[in-house]
Amino acid sequence: MPRIRQADVDEVKARTNIADIVGERVALKSAGVGSLKGLCPFHDEKSPSFHVRPQVGYYHCFGCGESGDVYSFLREMDHVSFTEAVERLAGRIGYSLHYEDGGAAPETSGRSRLYAANTAAAEFFRAQLLSPDAEAGRRFLGERGFDAGAAAHFGVGFAPRGWDGMLKALTAQGFTREELSTAGLVSTGQRGVYDRFRGRLVWPIRDVSGQTIGFGARRLFDDDNGPKYLNTPETPIYKKAQVLYGLDLAKRDISRGDPRRVVVVEGYTDVMACHLAGLTTAIATCGTAFGTDHIKVLRRVMGDDNASGEVVFTFDGDEAGQKAALRAFTEDDRFNAQTFVAVAPDGLDPCDLRLQRGDAAVRGLMEAKVPMFEFAIDRKLGGFDLSTVEGRVGALRAAAPIVAEIRDRLLRPGYERVLARRLGMDPMEVHGEVERAARGGGQPAVRQEPTRQDASSMGSDGGAPGLAPVTLASLPRTADVALERDAVMGALQYGHQVDQALLGRAFEAPFRTPSLEAIRQAIIAASDRARPGWVTDAVNSVREPYRSLAGELLMTPFPARDEEGAVASANGLSRRLILRALEDEKQELLGALQRVPADSDGGRALGIRLRDISVERQRFAES
Question: Coil, strand or helix: which one is 296?
Answer without folding.
Answer: helix
